[in-house]
RNA sequence: GCCCGGGUGGCGAAAUGGCAGACGCAACGGACUUAAAAUCCGUUAUCCCUUAUACGGAUGUGGGGGUUCGAGUCCCCCCCCGGGCACCA
């Protein structure tokens, strides 16, 4: 073959066409090879197209896939579209364009862009959550969950915006106002579909332990689930038959309870409030119901509350304590009521101080902690200071057999619970912060629920042969005005007549949230064309679980928790074979854009920058600016479009730069100048292969060592996803081997193979250039590192005197400790430096250093 | 406030407790060229000593302490940046 320039445009087109034509990356079901399932978080195909953040994770997974194929794995690497959702619907409201048209167009753009990067997806498995053949099975899964008793309708508050006449998603409400227009948003109760994810709280928590996920993400899920262990305790209401049950994690502080608090929504509030306090209580309830959650829970908010006039009896000591209502107690957690122990709970302490409620200390801090925290123990004992650290019980005994004085916190808790249980007035109780999952949206562009509201008020679940329930064509995508979804205007579509009983009904007009489609797409990829089932269980058993899942950390809780929940339900139903879907999870870091900030720290958009003498100025007011990485955004004009990079440098350079910037997980700033460097490296590689004389000859010791060190480094680094250092190893190799204009075939072929997962187009072309005329490098065997070549005859070691580096000497690489020491001591410079000094000791690290301590 | 990340040259970054700054960018100098691009070679942490870019010495991984023959790496305290959670009793 004739030498040509590195014409990346022609090369990349040629091989992308070749891969598509030959279905090079087709994953075969039931191959004898070990399977490896690599999944990217599939994108929402927006109108803006890809930005440089998308290809980061996709490049990483692509490299792993190609590496695994060369190591003999049968790789499943699919791509699809999470295409239901708000932007297409909002565009429809504004322009009247049907969301399916927008979606189709955006998918085409995304697909073209993704293909231009040469990713090795099996495109035969492509899917979109909006395909009727896909959402049929999303509805089918809903049916399974419903039948298992995990779906229910409940009247819960939604974000209702009267000015816009619509319901908003949480994400569209910013500081209690609508994102668009800044109108007030209130909480309005509406019938909503809920999932009992709380039934799976414990298993979702336990399951985390065995997952190979970033600790941060696991911790976020743990916090979200929010398990706490404590007790429910029943307090009698004084002069009444009513009882108030409270939840506490600190039953050991029961003797310190000086008041109680009910949340304003607690069902007993009106019952127990005495006549003289009615007006105040009603006013308070009314006031807090109008407040948004944000207002109620915002920081630094001073505590508020009112007394109900009622008293309760503390069951451990019979003391009468006042019952208050306050919005710092949430109705949705625990029992919606607490016992307040101001002496040992900061919130209660704050409240008690404000309303002059007594503080009664029941835990004496340990000496050690008093010292550490630098507090006066007397202040705690007198109730002047709130103490929530360790300590021992005081003032905590009654005549009915409970005595926890002198006990530590843990022991006191278990004793108290035992006592409460014996008396029948309380029990050990575990609570979770996790709430049931609100699953319906008042939207058009989502999966319709396979549900009908019948005339008689009953709810009918469609049967499996009544799905797919197709989303109807409508002309008007505007909200219905009643707070219902645009589907409420869908006319005939709404009407339903039961085929068996003839009873009339109206279809559910809510649609499912965007999470629905992404909850199970990894399962459909296994068997995307199956018409009879969501997936074939045999294929599921072969491919699952996902071995590597890569995506952004913004899905840490929601998507990843929801899909784990569905997966566990499917597992319980015997529909999948593993109880966790994603074995290993990696979050790629955010890529920031180059931005500029002025002396006041304000960011200045990219089009207002003027560069003079290597310094940056604001064109408008002459302020000197400093370069500063910031999140890419339209307004800052710092968004980098991959297409532009590919046009100038090619897809291989784009891929390489994305990986060379730094560790995959790190947040890092994009700098287009950096692409120049990897582009040069590829050009250099190209010249080394295509301009050198390639011959078969035996490499010398030094070259063999470099070659095998490179194999070892690249192999390890790709396995551990440290692509940046793998690339630098290949650069070192090139710097070494491109010095000569004659190259051994062995070195050349090994290099191309090592490069091929990272920069596949150029690798294919060079592979072909070397005479592999028909075929692809994709399934060539990955080079093997032979340890015996790594060893060099001589190694350089450092000789230090008292830890200070002095000289470097060459020694035979198999010198033992004694020989190494002797060599070091006989060196003339060392001998001079230690002359006349006593050697205290000598530390010797084999093949590394000798440290002579004097 | 709490929980995770992170802080290393002008910049992106490397470093199983063992020579800090590999690799790359930028900058500077040189070669090639009529010239430019491309390419190649070299220099590039700070300070001191010095006729000096030699030789030599000291300092240096956010700050302060500690462990160790030896610390970017381990331990304690503090500061700053990014992300998440936020009255969950």
Q: Which helices and strands, and how do they pair?
A:
Layout: H1 8-22, E1 35-40, H2 54-70, E2 74-76, E3 80-81, H3 86-95, H4 99-115, E4 127-128, H5 132-147, E5 151-161, E6 166-168, E7 173-174, E8 177-178, E9 186-195, H6 201-207, H7 215-225, E10 227-237, E11 243-248, E12 259-262, H8 269-272, H9 278-290, H10 293-297, E13 306-313, E14 320-325, E15 337-340, H11 346-355, E16 363-365, H12 367-373, H13 377-381, E17 391-393, H14 409-423, E18 426-432, E19 437-438, E20 451-454, E21 459-461, E22 495-497, E23 504-507, H15 515-518, H16 521-524, H17 537-543, E24 548-552, H18 558-572, E25 585-588, E26 591-597, E27 603-604, E28 609-612, E29 615-618, E30 624-631, H19 642-649, H20 651-660, E31 668-669, H21 672-691, E32 693-695, H22 701-719, H23 723-737, E33 742-744, H24 745-755, H25 760-769, H26 787-790, E34 794-801, E35 804-812, H27 817-826, H28 828-834, E36 841-845, E37 849-853
Parallel strand pairs: 1-2, 1-24, 3-4, 12-14, 24-25, 26-31, 32-33, 34-37
Antiparallel strand pairs: 5-6, 5-9, 7-8, 9-19, 10-11, 10-13, 10-18, 12-15, 13-14, 16-17, 20-21, 20-23, 22-23, 26-27, 26-30, 28-29, 29-30, 34-35, 36-37
Helix pairs in contact: 1-25, 3-4, 19-20, 20-21, 22-23, 22-24, 24-25
The structure holds one RNA strand of 89 nucleotides.
Could you tell me the number of beta strands?
37
Total number of helices: 28
Please state the second-level CATH architecture of the largest domain: Alpha-Beta Complex
Broad CATH class of the largest domain: Alpha Beta
Mean pLDDT: 90
